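Notebook entry, structure prediction.
Reason for the run: the old model in the group folder had no record of what sequence produced it. Starting over properly, with the input documented here first.
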Amino acid sequence: MENINNITVLFGTLITLLLSVVAYFIKQLHTDFKSMEKDLIEVKTMALIIKTEFKSGNDLLNQKVEYLEKRVNNIELTIYKNQDYEK
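New structure, fully documented this time:
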């Protein structure tokens, strides 16, 4: 009977020890997930900032291209008018 009690205590201690190890690793995993979540939020924010900067840069380039197209059209009209007057 004493052997059974000793074995029960031994198994109980072993199970408790193993559950403690599992709980420790789960806690570490939870901490890692929290850290990863913060990093992911930071990456999303940086991606949004970069996207906004590219969009504003693209808009500015489009405005410059439109302005240059208007100037080229005006210059072409001026050249055509001068050619018409020369004839």
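Summary: The first helix runs from residue 2 to 86.
The old model has been moved to the deprecated folder.
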